[in-house]
Amino acid sequence: MDSLPPVSRRALGRATLARQLLLRRSPLGAEEAVRHLVGLQGQNTKPPYYALAARLDGFRPEELSALMESRAVVRTVSLRSTVHTHTARDAVGLRRLVQAGAVERELNIFRKGLVGVDRDRLAALATAYVEERPRTPKELRDRLLREWPDADPLALTVAARCLLLLVQVTPRGLWRRSGRVALTTSRVWLGEPDAEAAGIEETVLRYLAAFGPASVQDAQTWCRLTRLRPVFERLRPRLLSFRDESGTELFDLPDAPRPDEDVPAPPRFLPEFDNLLLSHADRTRIVPAAYKGRTWTVNQAHRVFLLDGTLAGLWHLEETKGRTLLTVEPFAPLTRADRAALTDEAERTLRLTAPEGDAYDLVFRE
Q1: d(CA 359, CA 24)
Q2: Model confidence over 70-106: pLDDT tens digits?
Q3: CA distance to 138, 168, 183, 222, 251, per residue, from 208 (Å)
Q4: Tens of pLDDT along 249-307?
């Protein structure tokens, strides 16, 4: 371990920003970017759009909506047992990969509410019901309650979500046309047999390409799978190793970008639940220790912005008829140059995402 080359926290941040397409906007199309980033977390419907607006040159929200309508990308529960926007292939392969880990652990949390419920019977009944036509979670829950009236209603819904590979059908998730959640199986929605589980070694390599350099614990935090040390050991001959400032061993792809730690990092406005902030056990490469916990209130994540490559504050949107207001709330006083750069980036974000024809305003709350 002592012989491993050291890497600073700041250099780690720059490397991760480069992988995340946040040092300079990428010319990739939306589908390619979603695949490269191994999905976009989005319990809410708008975060994937803001995530791509921060990363892609020339991105228009309608591009992602079109991919959803064509079913090239879908919304489904996958990594960390949370809703992600994935390419169709990843939606199935990654979910299959994490099924026995994070998803099964979530199901186990609700086991007391499922006493007397036959899992196979539940899966068969739920499958037939949602494949007949897409169903809302309430419709699915009510159907299952008719079969098991003494079970916990929430536990029944969670069980169906965990046992079946369900996707949210459009218009849910479309840009400014989103509807309520309605579910069917990936098999029906994608019109093809379910793919096999993604390979764990390939998935670790993809994780490093999008989030590296990273430790074993970082990767486990990202996907909620455990016991990944043997996977990294098998891959070790193909990887580089480093030591971070706390002495933890990090792994990386030999040809992945690792820019100098002083490369400029422009401001970026990121949505709530952005994977940049959720995919490492040690998040100090992006989140300064002084700001730990500032991005959440209870269970609600906030939109954040980056300055010089690290978390520097929050931003808020208020949309009223004919007008959009973006409020910037920095954690520390801004320099004149930082304020000017944030203004440029905020105005770009507003031009991309404010309703067509709306006026928009920008306010700094310092």
Answers
A1: 28
A2: 999 999 999 998 999 999 999 999 999 988 776 678 8
A3: 39, 28, 32, 11, 8
A4: 999 999 999 999 999 999 999 999 999 999 999 999 999 999 998 888 877 889 999 99
**Strands 268-270, 304-307: pairing kind:** antiparallel
With beta carbons less than 8 A apart as the criterion, state whether 125 and 147 touch: yes
Closest CA to 182 of 132, 147, 144: 132
Rounded Cα gap, residues 296 and 42, in angstroms: 15
The single-letter code of the amino acid at 186 is: S
CB-based contacts of 100: which residues, under 8 Å, 6+ apart? none
φ/ψ bin of 164: left (φ > 0), alpha (ψ from -120 to 50), beta (otherwise): beta
Specify the pTM. 0.94
Indicate the residue type of 341. A
What is the rounded CA–CA span in Å between residue 255 and residue 142? 52
Residue 287 sits at the vertex; the CA angle it makes with 286 and 289, to the nearest 5 degrees, is 135
Higher pLDDT, 300 or 56: 56
Dump the DSSP string for 73-97. Answer: EEEEE-GGGSEEEEEHHHHHHHHHH
What does DSSP assign to residue 135?
B
